[in-house]
Design goal:
Jelly Rolls; four-stranded antiparallel sheet; globular; Nucleoplasmin_core_dom_sf; acetylation; chromatin binding; chaperone
Amino acid sequence: NLLLGCELTASTKSYTFQVDEEDNSDHILALSVVCLTDGAKDECNVVEVVGRNHENQEISVPVANLKLSCQPLLSLDNFKLQPPVTFRLAAGSGPVHLAGWHRIMHREDVSFEEDDDLSEEDEEDLPPIMPAKK
């Protein structure tokens, strides 16, 4: 597992996480914490995950609405996403820090018994999330 971190601000409103499609591995991105950091104003900061559905249409889903006075931090309990994926600050000026991890599973090593810390509630019917088109 590799640690992942990024920060969304008024000047950097989005971050796209991509992987090399040719590397013959499965990639899982798990988001664990979204939090406001130093310099944040007491305003609503909405973070969205932007991707593409199975018809290749852009979709965006809000995952956090943070406000300094009432909810400065949100634990997402390793919310799993399939790269490529874009995180976007849809409202507010941040700074909002996102932290999580990136797991690489080499297809030739993968056995189904090794799903030890992947929970049963994985949404297997969800389409892969694709990067946002600018």
